[in-house]
Amino acid sequence: MKEVNTLERHRLKDRTLSFISQGMMAIARRRPDIFMGLFAPILDNFPIGVYCTDLQNHEVIFANSVFTEMFGCKSLRELEDFYRRDELYLHSNDRVGWLQRVSESGNLLPFVVQLKKTDGTTFWASDTAAYVVYNKRGNPKSGIKLIFGFLEDVTLQEKEKKRLEYEANRDSLTNLYNRRYFQAKGQEIFEEAQTNGLPLSLIMFDIDHFKSANDKWGHPVGDKILKRITAIISSTMKEDDLFARYGGG
């Protein structure tokens, strides 16, 4: 019950911050100058990371203290150096995809991505951004390309999500994939093999006299047998092989 309440609190906070962020984003898109002048002092104490970057000059125009600290930086200058080295993203393709999506659509719905800190550790973050082409007053062709965004650390939520996914797809005794996952993934592998004309093998086996061992020495011994056989076979499997426990719990 405690875990559920914690997740509910996270969801409520996310919805509240999303509502506030959308309002601020609307102002940022129409009048970036007013947004920066009016909200910058307030945003420095905002509970999630807030930033503004110049795409053309590849520089950070504004970042509140939460955003700066997320990356383990002590100052905006340190953050900007880190940003210019393109070291924020764990996977460089994520940055390319992010820029493409936000540039094409003008805004970006929460985009969950894995980022890096200056010390090399990683964290999961939810990024909501808006792409703005800002023309300075009196110079309609200035066309400064800005991105305003809100960044929230969602590492705990991602870990909980992965834990639940793992438990849903795994056999609790052997940690092998369970029947449900095997049927879904197996169908996917089968269709891919058919489409590409690739050879595919399927092996299904059981353990001789396993019921007798359970009856004679009890289920704890039977569990040890299953785990031992799982370990032996797993040691021979290739990375892209699919190994599952089709029967059992």
User: Biggest sheet: strands side by side, in what order?
Assistant: 2-1-5-4-3
Q: What is the approximate shape?
A: elongated
Relative strand content = 15-25%
The low-pLDDT segments are: none
| Structural class designation | alpha+beta
Taken together, the total number of domains comes to: 2
The CATH architecture assignment of the largest domain turns out to be 2-Layer Sandwich
**N-to-C SSE string, H for helix and E for strand:** HHEEHHHEEEHHHH
Structure summary, number of beta strands: 5
Count of alpha/pi helices: 9
Largest sheet report: 5 strands, antiparallel
Round the Cα radius of gyration to an integer and report it: 25 Å
Helix content: 40-55%
Question: Any overview of this molecule?
Answer:
With 249 residues, the chain is α+β, with helices and mostly antiparallel strands. The chain has two domains: 2-161, PAS domain (Beta-Lactamase, 2-Layer Sandwich), CATH 3.30.450; 173-234, no CATH class. The chain has helices at 2-30, 32-43, 65-70, 76-84, 92-105, 155-169, 179-196, 210-217, 219-234, and strands at residues 49-54, 59-63, 107-116, 122-134, 144-153. It has a five-stranded antiparallel sheet, with helices on both faces. The radius of gyration is 25 Å and the shape is elongated. The relative contact order is 0.10. The model has no long low-confidence stretch (mean pLDDT 81).
